[in-house]
């Protein structure tokens, strides 16, 4: 049988930079004849050469055979002008991210191609509806949003504009599968799925730094060790680079008419202005020497000779587990209704700050320290403690030394409603819930898009279920009280699903 794609026999790729060539690779591997076009002289032939070299490398490694490489290479041709694309069944553009330029390109292509041909855009931040507006056949236009690097990031968002013919999306969805990628369907909304869902992680971490609660490296350590993120938010921003990620934060915020949930940070705006954008320039949140981040070692746990007895608040989250942990660590546990005058007083709030808890529970703030118990201690590789402004240094040191007794790393942060993990997890789950509420996509596609597109250890809804939807809701309700900030108001979707489970598929989905 001839090597030929059955959905789109001939595919045009306009713009053969980083994204265009990756998409061209997948299209040729799916058996389409791929025509490469770029306004920059030599860009298309450079892309062709790079892809040939890529396939030769895969042949050397034994991942492809001669026949496959021959087929793929034969599929990849150069177009010298837009008119060469007239016989294409699908044209994907991956040119500059400018609305007027993309509109102009599609208007010109529309006069050349057959009525059945599909015009797809790889835009990550522009509206599909806006790109299609003014065209003669807006129903033939859809978003086909890949991620960088295209061959490795196995997910693609298929986006319907206001007037897109559903069959166009069906075709792109099937084609994505033939390319070896997983398609997810998204409504034409700012950031689509992945860039929208990604707003929780970095933005909340930046907010924690901007409040002086902790530093970049500690926050990265906490989120890696407690939740299992592969990269901390600041490591991730250094890798993506702020000249890419800060404009995305601003764009989504403004496109949602200054919705508080997506508010960007002055920290990244200033660092971008200063050119301290990330690993590629040798300095971002971390300094890089020969590509390696320079990270100061964590302070060692203090040595405490006379460990005070510990009194645990009856309102602590996961209290039974925490009591067992204290026993396992060899603490002397007080059982009285209130702490003795020498006791280290331990609280474990969800969403509330340590100061508020000490005041409400009538505890001595000087001896009160908090611990984050959103996640099972057994399921984390780090413990996080928080002081309040009045906590005595000997009490902070005692708590630090006690919780480090079994060798598990301990971070101590300043007082904050919701510690680090609670804040970031609750924000991720809340934004994801709002994506479901807005029907940007199905809950199932959301989970797939986030795990494949952002590499999170769990989909955000599964994350909410694992740590307890009611716990997440409690964190948000209390943080809304502590901060008086609309950004923490729980999505109605989360409030309704809180009691029944977030990843539960339901007739309403
Ligand atoms: P790039 O700068 O590497 O490549 C763009 C290419 O388009 C260049 O070769 C340029 O000469 C060519 N070009 C510009 N205007 C043109 C025109 N009017 N006609 C024909 N060719 C033209 O850019 P990159 O990173 O490949 O991004 C391209 C598109 O993909 C943008 O819309 C971007 O938002 C989107 N995108 C980028 C991602 C990324 O991580 N780089 C991720 C997802 C989407």
Q: What report would you give on this structure?
A:
This protein is of the alpha/beta class and 509 residues long. It has three domains: 10-188, Rossmann fold; 196-294, N-(1-d-carboxylethyl)-l-norvaline Dehydrogenase, domain 2; 310-413, Rossmann fold. 42% of the residues lie in helices and 12% in strands. The protein is built from 20 helices and 15 strands. The chain has helices at 18-29, 43-60, 66-75, 99-112, 128-132, 166-178, 194-197, 199-210, 216-227, 233-240, 242-255, 266-273, 319-328, 354-360, 393-403, 421-437, 443-454, 460-467, 469-483, 492-497; strands at residues 10-14, 33-37, 76-78, 90-93, 118-121, 141-145, 155-160, 182-187, 287-289, 292-294, 310-312, 344-347, 368-371, 383-386, 410-413. The strands form three sheets. Strands 3-2-1-4-5-6-7-8 form an eight-stranded mixed beta sheet, with helices on both faces. The site of 1,4-dihydronicotinamide adenine dinucleotide has 23 residues, from helix 1 and helix 4.
């Amino acid at each position: 049988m001839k090597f030929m794609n059955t959905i789109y026999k001939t595919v045009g790729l306009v713009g053969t930079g980083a994204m265009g060539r990756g998409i061209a690779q997948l299209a040729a591997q799916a058996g389409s004849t791929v025509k490469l076009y770029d306004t920059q002289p030599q860009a298309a032939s450079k892309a062709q050469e790079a892809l040939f070299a890529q396939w030769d490398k895969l042949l050397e490694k034994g991942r492809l055979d001669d026949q496959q490489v021959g087929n793929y290479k034969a599929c990849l041709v150069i177009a010298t002008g837009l008119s060469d694309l007239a016989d294409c069944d699908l044209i994907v553009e991956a040119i500059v991210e400018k609305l007027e330029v993309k509109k102009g390109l599609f208007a010109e292509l529309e006069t050349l191609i057959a009525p059945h041909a599909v015009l797809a855009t790889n835009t990550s931040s522009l509206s599909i509806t806006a790109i299609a507006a003014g065209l003669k056949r807006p129903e033939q236009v859809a978003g086909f949003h890949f991620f960088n690097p295209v061959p490795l990031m196995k997910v693609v968002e298929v986006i319907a504009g206001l007037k897109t013919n559903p069959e166009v999306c069906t075709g792109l969805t099937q084609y994505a599968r033939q390319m070896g990628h997983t398609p997810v369907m998204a409504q034409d909304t700012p950031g689509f799925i992945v860039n929208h869902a990604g707003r929780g992680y970095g933005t909340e971490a930046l907010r924690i730094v901007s409040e002086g609660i902790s530093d970049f490296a500690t926050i990265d350590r906490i989120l890696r060790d407690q939740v299992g993120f592969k990269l901390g938010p600041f490591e991730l921003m250094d890798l993506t680079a702020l000249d890419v990620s800060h404009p995305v934060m601003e764009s989504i915020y403004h496109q949602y008419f200054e919705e508080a949930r997506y508010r960007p940070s002055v920290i990244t705006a200033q660092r971008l202005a200063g050119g301290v954008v990330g690993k590629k320039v040798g300095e971002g949140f971390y300094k890089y020497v020969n590509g390696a981040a320079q990270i100061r070692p964590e302070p060692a746990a203090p040595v405490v000779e006379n460990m005070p007895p510990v009194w645990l608040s009856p309102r602590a989250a996961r209290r039974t587990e925490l009591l067992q942990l204290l026993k396992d660590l060899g603490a002397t546990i007080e059982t009285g209704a209130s702490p003795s005058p020498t006791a280290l007083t331990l609280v474990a709030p969800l969403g509330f700050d340590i100061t508020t808890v000490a005041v409400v529970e009538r505890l001595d703030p000087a001896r009160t320290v908090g611990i984050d118990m959103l996640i099972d201690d057994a399921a984390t590789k780090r413990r996080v403690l928080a002081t309040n402004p009045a906590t005595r240094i000997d009490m902070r040191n005692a708590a630090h030394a006690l919780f480090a007794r079994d060798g598990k790393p301990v971070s101590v942060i300043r007082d904050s409603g919701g510690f680090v993990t609670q804040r970031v997890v609750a924000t991720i789950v809340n934004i994801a819930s709002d994506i479901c509420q807005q029907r940007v996509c199905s809950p199932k596609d959301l989970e797939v898009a986030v795990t494949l597109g952002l590499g999170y250890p769990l989909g955000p809804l599964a994350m909410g279920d694992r740590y307890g939807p009611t716990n997440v809701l409690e964190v948000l309700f209390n943080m809304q009280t502590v901060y008086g900030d609309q950004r923490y108001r729980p999505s109605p979707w989360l409030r309704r699903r809180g009691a029944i489970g977030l990843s539960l598929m339901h007739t309403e989905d």
